[in-house]
Amino acid sequence: xxxxxxxxxxxxxxxxxxxxxxxxxxxxxxxxxxxxxxxxxxxxxxxxxxxxxxxxxxxxxxxxxxxxxxxxxxxxxxxxxxxxxxxxxxxxxxxxxxxxxxxxxxxxxxxxxxxxxxxxxxxxxxxxxxxxxxxxxxxxxxxxxxxxxxxxxxxxxxxxxxxxxxxxxxxxxxxxxxxxxxxxxxxxxxxxxxxxxxxxxxxxxx
Amino acid sequence: xxxxxxxxxxxxxxxxxxxxxxxxxxxxxxxxxxxxxxxxxxxxxxxxxxxxxxxxxxxxxxxxxxxxxxxxxxxxxxxxxxxxxxxxxxxxxxxxxxxxxxxxxxxxxxxxxxxxxxxxxxxxxxxxxxxxxxxxxxxxxxxxxxxxxxxxxxxxxxxxxxxxxxxxxxxxxxxxxxxxxxxxxxxxxxxxxxxxxxxxxxxxxx
Lengths: 206, 206
Prior knowledge:
The structure is a homodimer. Chain A is α/β, with parallel strands linked by helices. Chain A contains 6 helices and 11 strands. Chain A has helices at about 30-35, 40-45, 55-70, 75-85, 120-135, 145-150; strands at about 5-10, 15-20, 70-75, 95-100, 105-110, 115-120, 135-140, 160-165, 170-175, 185-190, 195-205. Chain A is globular and about 40 Å long. The first copy, chain A, starts with a strand and ends with a strand. At the A-B interface, strand 10 and strand 11 of A face strand 10 and strand 11 of B.
């Protein structure tokens, strides 16, 4: 059975998933948005930050999201930012298909992450990711513009949003430009933790 | 002990609480946004639509929101729209303070709703509502612009958002223009029902 295509992001209560400019990525708002992730045992393990860290439902959800993922897809901007920021052992541990115009050989990192550069659009990248993932799921990792392209193309089966108790006021909105007339949602799951609420929706065409 | 100042709205997952124009108020998106309310026993009782209706957590939440409210505050636009749309027995059953430039005598409806027209700003309207509400809470009923004025003035203690599984794409955003640099949120409660997720936050200054 083929896996699902999904995305999973942290979103501010007012709908933002990133600050306006990458320079703000270590800023206060971003840190608050992601505050639920940093203390997790899974986060510490995955980035080799040493032992310890919190267990519990947030940690389980982060781990499940990782484990269901057989391959990831990301846009050029997310890759460009990450290429500088990720540690030598990039945190994906699966093949990652980068939608880009740049022609480049696969870039293999230790720990199982290999970046493949796909030059012929989002559907081609997804096809390659699906092939690789087998019966595991394909995660559209980001950034926001890439996620939205997949949403508007009707290629997302399901997504999760961790709603953080923070207001951004400005930045990159998850659904800015969504084709709302063509997309219907079903609430699949809603799980509060002490820090955020994890909302999961299935997507279907109208 | 004085009551709290709160608001409670239904919000689309992409952050909208109303369509762009009042003419769309009976449109598809609005109906989907409010779809969790219409089947409730409390909704049917309150609007005298006859017996029946669903019980359960959504119904309890709607009833609790009503019962905690000792007085409401609303903006002129919400009042103008409602003046046409509300039934003879308006659904508030408490004093309602309307922030407006219009000078007008109190307008008493059957069933306990009396509209008072306050001409000297949001703080004056809130003071009068607080006085009337005693130890019950004051609800900032809407619309969006009025809620935001109270948020940015630091006058909201707590609020609830029923996140509906619908995308608007455009319309009136709850937090458009929020002064995010001055407002911090604490997640107080998060309660899923089968149709929506009820998120409750406390507001404090930064």
